[in-house]
Amino acid sequence: MSTIYDVSARAGVSPATVSRVFNGHPVSKEKQRRVTAAAQELGFVPSRAARALRRNSSEVIALIIPDIENPFFAMLARGVEDCAQDAGFSVVLCNTDDDSAKETRYFDIANAENMAGVILAPSPECGDLERLIQAGRPVVAVDRATEVDVDAVVIDNRAAGTAATAALFDQGYRRVACIAGPKDIEDTEERQLAWRAVVTSRTGSPPEPGLLQHGNYRVDQGRTAMSALLELAEPPDAVLTTNNLMGVGALQVLHEAGLTPPGFGVAVIGELPFPTVSPDVITQVQLPVRQLGRTAATMLIERINCDPQPARTVVLRGVLKAADTVNRS
Amino acid sequence: MSTIYDVSARAGVSPATVSRVFNGHPVSKEKQRRVTAAAQELGFVPSRAARALRRNSSEVIALIIPDIENPFFAMLARGVEDCAQDAGFSVVLCNTDDDSAKETRYFDIANAENMAGVILAPSPECGDLERLIQAGRPVVAVDRATEVDVDAVVIDNRAAGTAATAALFDQGYRRVACIAGPKDIEDTEERQLAWRAVVTSRTGSPPEPGLLQHGNYRVDQGRTAMSALLELAEPPDAVLTTNNLMGVGALQVLHEAGLTPPGFGVAVIGELPFPTVSPDVITQVQLPVRQLGRTAATMLIERINCDPQPARTVVLRGVLKAADTVNRS
DNA sequence: TTGAAAGCGCTAACAT
DNA sequence: ATGTTAGCGCTTTCAA
B74, A74: Cβ pair inside 8 Å? Predict the structure, then answer.
């Protein structure tokens, strides 16, 4: 690995000039040419390690998410990485399993690595964000907002829940249940409240308590919740799940019980990953997840470039893909 | 962010001693105590950036893969990250889209960042690995081997292809087609050859050319290939896909054509991601993907710790989950 | 066991 | 526009 000194010697200029060329600072045409030529010949690649130390900011951003195996976060990661790469940043992948201690550990690492910034999908009780703020490291929250006042990109959960639930009623279902996420998470709470509101307005009374189940956003809990719903004295004829993975679990159980859509109504907030059967009979609210990632990365990079404006929250809306309307009389 | 000097001043020792404490080098009990106390009080976290520069090796490894949105690679990433984290390493996510130019760019970044090592799922024509080798950066190849002689963790593709194809014949299917990956990739080639061998031995003659389709490992090409198979003058009664995503595509097309398993036999190498219907009617060769990631990370970390042994190749085997044997007479 | 000091490769004042 | 130089925070000889 050759250094800036090797290049400067070969080009007959000072190391500072080489640095200037590689940072786009003004340099005379002639020296510019000599430097690039010398660098080319030596296969010189600037040391990001040295630069990070000197500038107290590396060309790396942290992406802190619950679990990359969840297709939602994989998509998000893809959006972030695409955008980051275009801007010359690399992305460090940090899985937290919704554990705030792990989250905090990653905050420390972000500091220790002098990372340029952090994109965070916060766990229910978010880690100690102050550590980042105090170090002056920009943070953008995605998917969920945080207590702390930082930039955020979120989904319009209320609208998503309303659209999905209303679609089920429009398709003719009457007893619409809901499988929601953990109680203490804001976004799922919003979706669940939307469901409750639509049920109330369509049926004239609030949903029975048994029709609301809580899961942890994963497939197995979708299964558990769906099983519980089917065991009710008076089971529902349709279900809304507030995320995609619990939708997968619910569909598995329904399938095993011989209750496939559209015989039983299913609506999912989020997109079913890799469906092997036609998803036309399932109502989905498709979330612009990649866009979520791209937007977050863009905002973060603006901050990294010292954009001084106050914290912003960007709200993205999902797109309703209603099931083919089989109006069951 | 306090530095090693702040700590040394507070503890009344030299900076070198602080460094020694944090690196597990011998230091007297007393000073050890004072240093840890001082560090604790100051909330000192060692600068990885400085360390990386000085040691010419950071606590970061690169994970270079085609696409994190493919659940196979998401699982792999999870295995890698879990293992890396335990050893104190962070993981940089690099999506190549099977583009060797992007791959090479990431090799340069790995060098520029002084990364500790690289885990690489090589694209068909692999990037310029020499850049890494020459810089002395350890590399472990996963999923596919490389031209260059480096450590590798791969799947026993021949066994996987054989088991899956044989299972289809055992279930009573007679005309077994194959949807394989790109022609120039070794692993899919192995799987396809295994299919060919089993077909030949079971039917007494090699498969007709039309029964072999090539795709690019993605859902859409699985669809295209399956459609082509169904349009044959004499269509197959079963199909093997050499990866999971093409299996998804094939199942979609079959479903749309009203040909669902077990009426039409389907075997997939790899696991169907998030199946919404019971996968019991589909033969899968489950690949130990997370284990693949863990093994690769473990091997890499051994190399980082200067393990001098010659390049090793570890072969992992999949597990056959045959469909419930519906023997169609 | 401990400390002093050099230096990893770069950037940014400062001086010219 | 360009060169000189002092660090960024750490690790690692070398001496003591």
Answer: yes
Q: Token digits for B56?
A: 């010419």
Structure tokens at B48: 């990885």
pLDDT average, residue stretch B47-74:
97
How far is Cα B197 from Cα B175, in angstroms, rounded to an integer?
14
Which strand C bases fall within 7 angstroms of a protein CB? 1-5, 7-13
Residue with tokens 């296969």: A43
pLDDT at B328: 43
β-sheet bridge partners, residue A152: A141, A313
Distance between the alpha carbon (CA) of A312 and the C1' atom of D6, Å: 39
Cβ contact (<8 Å) for B112 and A245?
no
Ranges of beta strands (E only) in chain B are 60-65, 90-95, 117-120, 139-143, 151-155, 176-180, 212-214, 238-241, 265-269, 283-286, 313-316, 319-321
**pLDDT of the residue at A276:** 87
Predicted pLDDT of residue A326: 53
B153-200 pLDDT tens trace: 999 999 999 999 999 999 999 999 999 999 888 888 899 999 999 999
| Interatomic CA distance for residues B309 and B302, integer angstroms | 10
Which of A53, A68, A255 is closest, CB to CB, to B78? A68
Query: For residue A219, which residues of chain B lie inside 8 Å, CB to CB?
Result: 274
B278 contacts in chain A (CB < 8 Å): 252, 255-256
- Residue-level pLDDT at B307: 78
pLDDT value at residue A139: 97
Residue with tokens 């792990």: A102
Contact between A78 and B60 using a beta-carbon 8 Å cutoff = no
Element holding B42 (H helix, E strand): helix B29-42
Record: contact B252-A276, CB cut-off 8 A: yes
- The distance (Å) linking the CA of B29 with the C1' of D12 is 22
Shortest Cα distance from A29 to chain B (angstroms)? 26
